[in-house]
Amino acid sequence: MEEVKAKKRSREVDMLHGPLLKKIVLFALPILATGILQQLFNAADVAVLGRFDTSEALAAVGSVGPVIGLLVNLFLGLSTGANVVLASLIGSGEGKRIPRAMHSAFSIAIISGFFLLIVGQFVARPMLTLMNTPKEIIDLAVKYLKIYFTGMPFMLLYNFGAAVLRSKGDSHRPLICLVFGGILNVGLNLLLVIYYKMSVSGVAIATVMSNVVCCFLILWFLSREEGVFHFEWKKLCLDRTLSSRIIYIGAPAGLQGVVFSISNVCIQSALNGFGYYAVAGSSAAVNFEFLSYFILNAFDQATTTFTSQNYAAGEAQRCKKIFRECFWCGFLSILIFDAALVLTRTTCIQLFSQDPQVIHYALIRMVIVISTQPISATYEISGSTLRGMGHSMLPALITILGTCVIRLIWVYLLFPIFSTFEMLLIIYPISWIITGIAMTGFYYHLRKKDFALLPEKEQKN
Question: Distance between CA 181 and CA 53 in Å, rounded?
């Protein structure tokens, strides 16, 4: 029994005591591996289609990303709320409320998942039509989306389960779940596309089955937990106070993702006007952008979780140190990774397609977007810190205005004047710079105000 408890402690990071840098890195690395593996497995969909099917199939799967983000991000944002609420309960010593908070979070995940499953079947074609999706690929894209959305309940249960485990410092077991699910995904991709010739239907089915495996594995882990994090189906509930808190924190983050996706839908619509070679090339390059994002996202999640626990415990100085160390870890990691991608860009793109026209567009996107992507760390880390401090709406509004609204203005007012592929993409670094300046400024302003109250909170506790 003692060995089991020691093993359990070894995979959970104590965020409230001791040096921070090593713990931040140890917590972030499994999240980093989870994100990269997740994107590699998603990239396998694109790579298998690009190498063993047609450019049209490749473009079809690549074109649906903004639609998926638009419909799914709101509900995935709620998992951020679950993470913050649970981490805050740990930091403030309110462990007795954790079971109801956790089971409320899973109830929200189930309701949201089935809502998306139903809505996805009806809005797939209308949304793709509104995006000016090329007629050569729209039927394939609709087919992929309808199958993909059948897996929504499983995807959300996995993401909420991962948020629960991470809130208490365990970022290892979500990775384990994804490894098993991802291996199945790649295997089914190869089997269904190459052997059974199922094209986009095959990769969609593989993705759904991967989500099913990840879901049941993470619920199995939680059902074997002892103490307040033990999961039981019969304990599912919707505690009014805790559910409201989860939604209050998570909904703005989700809304940010939705509006962010709307701007990407508009950019994708403009990009579709260049034809399916541009769509396919952009789709290939985006896979590497997501890899970079997941590197930064690992430190984003570390920032939110560490800050939530320490802010609830009244540890102002540790919160300041968390921001500094997470920012530099995230910025330098993505800077090094993106530099390597740009230097090897031709080789990277050839993993997805050998078509010269597809490669041409992909290389342009990599040079413009990936080479400037480290700038995004300026608003990602500061925004995650604000969420950990309980300010969820403000970073959402800053991101919506600084990133999304500016991109929409660019697409509809400036891009029509200079309608080139390069002109369309240059808005990414411009919006990152503007949003980073605004978010960092508000962080320092609110930090001074909020941290001054923490000693008073300690006395009350």
Answer: 23
